[in-house]
User: Fold these one by one.
Assistant:
Number 1:
Amino acid sequence: MKARDFVNLLLRPGGYEVVRTRKRDHRPIFRADGLQTAHNHDFLRDPRFVAARRRAEQADPGVDIPWRLHMALWAASHALRLEGDFVECGVNRGYLTSGILNYLDWNRQGRRFFLFDTFQGLDESQLSEAERAKGRAEQGRARYRECFEEVRANFAEFERVHLVRGSIPATLAGEEAQGIEQVAYLSIDMNNAAPEVAAAEFFWDKLVPGAVVLLDDYAYSGYEEQKAAMDEFAAGKGVSIASLPTGQGLLLKS
Ligand SMILES: C[S@@+](CC[C@H](N)C(=O)[O-])C[C@H]1O[C@@H](n2cnc3c(N)ncnc32)[C@H](O)[C@@H]1O
């Protein structure tokens, strides 16, 4: 038995493990946000990505989820080749969307981006018993606070970005949501299943062929209720969701 395997045998019951941080050929290992891999992650050094990541971090300092941002930038770039608006349900301080707007040079694109959020945390009335039992309400109270004015200031430099304040599903019946006819990019990230399914249902028929749906918590450890709910939703539409090692889920409207 190798020395490392022996050490790991002792460490694992305590939840620890010794890992090689570089492969023998000195390729670096990516390790962040619950993901560890030796696979290529050159995107981290791409100047456009670096600028987008910096802009994302400016919106929400302390958040560092580069591979999830990479996926969002890829999805948004794909959507830019389609007709339709961009939508995010679950925005908080705008980490992902700020990165996208910077990456796509938004003010030159002539597109609209709708951002749905309470901008003051979860709507606890939407939580299921299972989500409550996992402490989702307490997590939400600890993580989120009133941020509407700061978010508005963050996005002020970008044109045609519309903040839609209030709880989903209630805001889906409002004038702004009803005025959205075609969607090319849909990001869903509300940390609880019921409003996520409501958003997916509401926007499904508005998604143009090839539109991309990015589910932030789909495969994320601890968010199993959202995965189960979205799998049921997808099955009802005759599609399936790609489970990504970032914890995200990816769905294409074919
Ligand atoms: C994980 S954060 C979103 C993070 C964001 N995508 C980013 O890039 O940083 C979850 C957000 O969902 C919002 N949210 C949760 N439930 C909601 C609901 N029913 N209606 C509207 N917003 C909701 C919360 O206010 C919170 O800002």
Number 2:
Amino acid sequence: MKLKDILLNIDFKGYKHYKILEKKEFYFKDFSIFFSHIQSDPYAPPSAAIIKVKSHNIPLQLRDSFDKRVALIDYLHREFFRNINDKNIIVPKPLQKVLYRSIGFFDNDDTLVFKINIQLPAKGRRILANEAIKIILNNLPKIVQNSLFYDSLDKDKLNKHIELYLDQQFIRDFLKKNNALVFIANGSILPRESGISDKPLKNAIKFISPSSIEVEIKLPSGNIIRGALIKEGVNIITGGGFHGKTTLLEAIEAGIYNHIKGDGREFVITRDDAVKIRAEDGRYVADLDISPFIRNLPYGKDTKRFYTLDSSGSTSQAANIIEALEAGSRFILIDEDTSATNFMVKDEIISNFITHDIEPIIPFLYRVREIYEKYKISSIIITGGVGEYLKVADRVFLMREYKMEDITIKVKDFFKTKNSNIKNYNYEDFYIISPRRLKENVINPYKGKKIKIKSKDKTTIIFGNYSIDTSKIETIISSNQLKTIGEIVYLSYKKYGKKYNIVDMVEKFLEDIKINNFENLLVKDSPSYILPRKYEIIFALHRLRSVRYKI
Ligand SMILES: Nc1ncnc2c1ncn2[C@@H]1O[C@H](COP(=O)(O)OP(=O)(O)O)[C@@H](O)[C@H]1O
Ligand SMILES: [Mg+2]
């Protein structure tokens, strides 16, 4: 039967009669729609459908690598979203970032598979067939026609979109080849419109590189770009309050992802193992050796196998670093705004009263050079208040009225006449822990008989009977990405948790996702999954309060 007749047959019947569409495929002139999941309640989330376009005509050279496909699907997603003419047809809202998503892919037959949600119309709980016909048979085909066929796309714009993404990926390689951490192009706009908007601030002062670190990069597109190259080592950013330090660091954090043209940060590119380290008091920490930073706690509390439901500012910051390094990062970002002072530093005067034999904390100041020299762990640290950090820096930058200046030479000259030594307390050598393994049966997303993994904003994962506080994992970008993270925590453990340590477990699962286009996650037909890095997944796992590790 034709879709139209089926719908007319169930007009004004109870909403669950829509179920007749489920698992059926209907053919239009140039595409088909498969109703993969139909909700039986109009107040539930929308139903899911898969659009298949065989004659999309998108040339192979626009999609013959993983990177190209990410950029291409992102473009189609944006076009589809822009063309939506009906509030009942739903796809996730595109962000400023270009991300690998579950919304679309090319299957083995080279068919473009594109996932959408449809809110099937009702009056109360009764089916409105004519409305449904309008949505599915009139409005949807127009959107598909305008956004998923090569001939209707703006080819020049599409080419530029992919080209930009490839240029950005090229800079990522450039960083690795040049022992560098970050590239920030001249002309970049770093500040955002507001604390809750990811759009660029209007009339912002544009970034200009200090000449001492300015480089020129010839991009695959043929364009030549100039900007600041921050090299591996200990990099300090200082400056007066409100002069743009945090804004710079936040742009660097965001640079682990590629941004769209016009964002202002499209050529702010950061090495993809960057992790923001901050204090997080109240954090759950399980079975972690934090002794490289914290030892001799009162009453002999074990710091080689530290366990707490409620850590302090300093112990949480120590745990965050140890776990970042465990996960593989060799690049940490620290802002004094979000750090525990006693973790960062301890001054001379207070050392007379809190002597080093009774102080459990080895401040980061005493480790930062050691970890770079021994393990090549680089850092970018903001401090406007602690001069001691200038002594341990490879380079010092000053932010003055949103302009970056290189004051390394000035600082070195200053210390020529002053004592530039950091006291040596003969602490035991720093070490990086090897990745831990999970104990058995410590991850359970069931609530009663059903799996429940949901995200609330970017800040909480509801995970069975638990809720995971992710509000301090700053590199999580959206609720959809957070839900993806929650599912990977469970599914990677289920598949690889017995055999592998947590890092291998997550890395293997991420590889699977790239092959399966997210169809190994819980909702095969969801357009909403967004790929996270391994770091965000591992960090979320650590915050699940049932988790315990073998060590
Ligand atoms: N390049 C810029 N142009 C205009 N405004 C900026 C720029 N960089 C930062 N700001 C704004 O200045 C304010 C202070 O910046 P912030 O980075 O928090 O300073 P700091 O960390 O040095 O105290 C913020 O409101 C921010 O949006
Ligand atoms: Mg600040």
